[in-house]
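Hi R.,

Here's the chain you asked about this morning:
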Amino acid sequence: MELSPRYELLASKIEEKIGDKLSRSLSSTGQLTYELPPTELVECCRFLRDADGCKFEMLMDLCGIDYLEYGETEWDTAEATNSGFSRGVQDRASDDGELRREGDAEYSPKGRFAVIYQLLSITCNHRIQLKTFCEDDEYPIVDSVISIWNCANWFEREAFDLFGILFRGHPDLRRILTDYGFIGHPFRKDFPLVGNVEMRYDPEKGRVIYEPVTIEPRTLVPRVIRTDNRYEPQLKGSKDA
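And the predicted structure, written out as tokens:
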């Protein structure tokens, strides 16, 4: 989707000053989005906060993304599947007539973990999105932006808690949503949906105890692939839809 004229003007100002440090990403919503290496993150964020015409005073949100198996998951049948699905894939008809999926050719993640920053300029009334990838999938880490936006404190703790992404320079990086002693990071794609442990009150011991989870994973409502006219891209907006 094309950007509006006011955002094209903003993009030209940003790319004139720091265009060598970041690259514009495609957006299906018309939002101005940039991808940048983690080594340039702090410098670019400080520029976006302070520069005339930018003035992104507020960090509205910060979140992690796990791209594990992005674009690789396939449908099992043309009717339903019990093993889930991926939205980052394309339709592909197989020789046996079943509907399969193949990787998204338009986008290939540069790593497993990424961090997204949503910025707002109250002064100029515009928004921007930044994305940076962690260089190491086994030890994901990026620089903290607390020195630029103090509200990043809890956002970064949340990304650490749920995704295991570390933020270099954070003054108090500890869990914020999960329980004390929790093992693992529940928003990672390889974390089991039912978890690893469960807790209950033991009347004999008079306290809460942890024990291995006893819930068996199961799918109550299978996911269905709908192939009627409502979902044909070429018919969107036409009278034949």
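Residues 1-68+109-177 form a domain with the Beta Polymerase; domain 2 fold (CATH 3.30.460.80).

Let me know if you need anything else.
M.
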